[in-house]
Amino acid sequence: MHVRAFDFSERLKGRESRMDLARIQVGPLWKLRPDLSEVVDDLLDVIAAVHVVDRLVRRSRAGGYTCPRHLTLTVPVAFPERCSAQRQPLTALLEWLTGDHWEIEFNGRLGRRRTRVPALLSTGAPEMSRPFVGLYSGGLDSLAGAVAQALDPQFDTGLLVGGQTGGGLKSLQSGQFAALRERLPQVQWRPFQGFWHQAGKKELADWFVQEQSQEKSQRSRALLFLTIGVITALAHDVDTLHVYENGVGAINLPYTAAFAGADQTRAMHPRTLLLMERWLTGLLERPVRILNPSLWRTKGEMCAQVAAAGLGDLTVLTASCDSYPLRHATHKQCGSCTSCVMRRVSLHAAGLYAGDAAADQYRDDLFRLTLQGGADRRHALHYMQEQAQQFACLSGPGRMVDFRLAFDGLEDARQAIHQHSGLSLPEVDTRLGRLFGQYAREVAGFSRDLTSPTPPVASSPLVA
């Protein structure tokens, strides 16, 4: 395994270091809370450096599988001893999330990382009554999750935060937030907090030229967004960040063996959230919680909550495609990747299929492809149908042992949920069985309508 090394303390022309050029821009937070500890600056720099390296080094493939990388990096920080003390939790998190071997060294940096904000110019954290802070992507799950929390009587104030890596994503998030604010006035919405980061591609051009092309998987991007979310929450004196991902998508059992390992995203996996929580709590020396309130719901059940609230029309504002925004003259989503297929299955299960179809958002229409052939673009659908049939057989009472043997990744989720939630393992097993059984029924219902001689214009909505 070839070792790749990157030193972010290296000085370039002038006085800037590579770390200066790769930073996440969070100036509004420092204006809001100039009293936040400088260890927060270190946290942001470490995650930014990890993300840059993750994008720089291409993964190699052998025998149809993606090979792990050996990555070493040096990061200048204000608190090298404190960061070094939390190195093991950090590398455990990175190795789980990316499937690679990481070695990280910390050395002291010169000067201050943050521009001082005079106390008189500080806006201060606003008073928020019974708030929730949610990580918002612009996808269907994030919209459904935000709606569910806004309707929850235990919350009076909502604050959504998102990472933005392009103008299209910024526009998508802003449009959805404006609609949520208008349609859910019972919640006092704080202004949407969006933070820009492009991994320093322009500023660190020599590194990118050296690598010739960038790695597309970007498994560490989830840590970038989670970090931004947690820091925003802490700046508003909230110690819990909520994330919005349906349970099947969060656990993300591989469709086939080829989808496992580095090819399998673990962004919102229960173990990712548990390991992230442990590292941040240790580094920041204060409690940090990252909760997924939708863990026990399918995407279809999340959409059913939106439909029951009379907000089903808002789903057309969201995007789910793995290739969003699609480089296509009239359609921004492909309609045939696994994310698009799950989106269509879920909207069908929630009784929202007709509105979704009328919006004409997809390059590939699954109904048309099924009638006219087009098997080359239905691979994701076939993978999903085969997996759902397995779930239907294995999710029944007393079958959890067989389920775990068939999908060894399920045990990681099972143990992480047990440790994080305090639920007993038998209770976790019962809930997992119900979750995957419900998902299997949703896929089966969608598949039946696909073979119907007429397009499904409506479906029986789930009970939210």
UniProtKB/TrEMBL annotation:
Protein name: 7-cyano-7-deazaguanine synthase
Organism (species): Deinococcus rufus
